[in-house]
Request: fold
Amino acid sequence: VLPSNEGRGYVLRRLLRRAARHGKLLGVDRPFLFEVCATVIGENECAYPDLREKESYITRVIRMEEESFAKTIDGGMKIFTEMLESHKAEGGKTFSGADAFKLYDTYGFPIDLTVEMVEEEGMSVDQDAFKQLMNEQRTRARKAREALGDLGWAGVEFGKDVPSTRFVGYGNSAIEDARVVALVVENELAEAMMPGVEGIVVLDKTPFYAEMGGQVADHGLLRGGACQFAVTDVQKNKGGKYMHYGKMAEGMLKVGDTVSAAIDPERRKAVMRAHTATHLLDKALRAVLGDHVHQAGSLVEDDYLRFDFTHFTAMTAEELSRVSQEVNNAILAGFAVEAKEMPIEEARKTGAIALFSEKYGDVVRVVNIGEGYSVEFCGGTHLDNSAKAGLFHIESEFSVAAGVRRIEAVTGRRALEQMNRAQEMLFQAAAELKAKPAELREKAVQMNAELRELRQTIEKLKAREFTGQAEQFLMSAKAVKGLKVFSMSRNGLSADDMRRMGDFLRDKEPGVVALLAGVNEGKITFQAICGKEAVARGVKAGEIIKAIAPICGGKGGGKPDSAMGGGSDLLKLDDALAALDDFVSEKAKD
Reply:
């Protein structure tokens, strides 16, 4: 259960806020409930072990709720005190339902909290009037919902008096006379927004581009007098309202205020570089791969783009190189970029590319790059010249669905930073290899050849070493029922080394029975070898491993002439090796 404004989440929110307020009455002027989480969890984890597993999450949620309520109550307590004093001055014993509703609707005071504070003053709240106002609000919201339709992700309703937002951001990065037409705090319409509170601001006009068509929203600031609201996201609902999400950094904002609205111009330029490059990429993919290529989705951020397109095979390195070259040639050409609004039928006659999945109105915006080089329907923001994209670099190409590929690329400063990093690594590698950057490929080929030769030499030396050791072992082997039997162990002996030695022993001596053990990082690897004569007389390598590995707490098996196993009890290794003679005596047939 998480704190919310409805159902059991609202019950939780009421409990937390009531406890937080009693803390304030006791003189605790900071969030404190989250600090007792560990104690509560400690007392209850026997019955509810999940509490301990989710302790950090629970603590974080409670702290956020406390901090949110602290901002609400600090801003609203002054208003409540003024209302209370007004009622007392009139000599009444009832706190009006209208004032209780205003505290709830505008400042986020739960009604039960207002009732509790009023009762502490020997008064009562007119709850019937409050309920009536609440019902009227629900009715208004329902009618607004019916009028506006589904507001999608926003989950926020606005009345008929809130006009659609006029977007003026194509030619402006800042305006001075935007009017606040609606505020939302904790998913509820509000008349004012207090300092430190997160919420939504709706303006009558805005230079902020809302997230649409794959392009991310602008960031920036709203300012008015002493207030400052930092915008971190902008969404547009179906009613045409631009919802500026963010946080009240300073001062207080009220419905009806006039503010200046300014986007982050450097971020907008970076987004425009990526967006114009996306159109050039679409054109390049068609030129290189064919007309079957169609856009299947996109994401445009500051100097970063992600482009999904229809194509059924992975692009080759040559194709990616040609696409990259095509885009960068278009950038270097310095094509003029022009955006025009025109009737949709006229736009179609120009050959402008439209997305199949998009719905368009009677009038559309067409972006034309290079007087016909690339013409597409698009409502996003763009450069006025392709050269301003600077650089274009493809980072990756991969499949995201059957018949759909994805390219990730960077432009502008990100591409420059990546190029500088690659150049720095190139110089570092050249310095390490004592070569010039232009000579790195030849140097790498030369070193690989030398490395292969060294490895071959090492392998030959190892083979000689193992051959010599194997012959020494054979010379010291015990004779058990006419078979040559020996066992040995060595630290650091790998499984590959044991196989190599075992193969030599088996081929060299038909009557050999050998048990090799390699110890690495506290674990034992066994290798059992039996020559042809030993196998013919009933001594099999697989049975040796099955009998001896369990002595060291392990297991294993294999073929009659070669088998492997493992173990973990190093203290029993000597006992395991010593058991080989008895095993051969028991199994070997005369």
About this structure: Confidence is low (pLDDT under 50) at residues 147-153.
